[in-house]
Amino acid sequence: MPLLDGRKALIIEDDRVSIDVLKRLLDHVSMEAMVILHSFDILSELLTVPRPDVIFLDLEMPVVNGYAVLRMIQTMPIFQDVPVVAYTTHTSHMNMAAAAGFHSFLGKPLDSARFTDQLMRILNNEPVWEVP
């Protein structure tokens, strides 16, 4: 099992259950999880987080959706070359996420048996486009 001590994931999500599930999966590989719980003041929150190794971004959130947040992320030098993963229950959004410029797409619910492999591939800059 890979241990990713010192590596960080940023989770941008408004659903606490989804956050908890993803945090547990990241904890399993010793990867630190930082969380932005909602999108009410997303820009100022993005300016305060340390550079992550991967970003998991929900597509449907109040105020600002994931596509708008992705556009913000893409303009910020600190996030250059950080893979941004669309993380959503709406698997029908896969083509829109690809067109918007997401690195990868993981449909909810995540498969805990596949997650470590998916994460390692994403961290190795291999796009992963998978649904449950």
What does this molecule look like?
The chain is α/β, with parallel strands linked by helices and 132 residues long. It has a single domain, classed as Response regulator (Rossmann fold, 3-Layer(aba) Sandwich). The protein is built from five helices and six strands, in the order E-H-E-H-E-H-E-H-E-H-E. It has helices at residues 16-28, 42-46, 66-75, 94-100, 112-123; strands at 8-12, 32-36, 54-57, 84-88, 104-107, 129-130. It has a six-stranded parallel β-sheet, sandwiched between helices. Strand 5, helix 5 (112-123) and strand 6 (129-130) form a beta-alpha-beta unit. The longest helix is centred in the first third of the chain and has 13 residues, at 16-28. It is globular, with a radius of gyration of 13 Å. The mean pLDDT is 94.
CATH fold descriptor? Rossmann fold
Summarize the helix and strand pattern as letters: EHEHEHEHEHE
Give the class from helix and strand content and strand pairing.
alpha/beta
Overall pLDDT level: 94
The strand line-up of the biggest sheet is 2-1-3-4-5-6
Terminus-to-terminus distance: 22 Å
CATH class: Alpha Beta
Helix count? 5
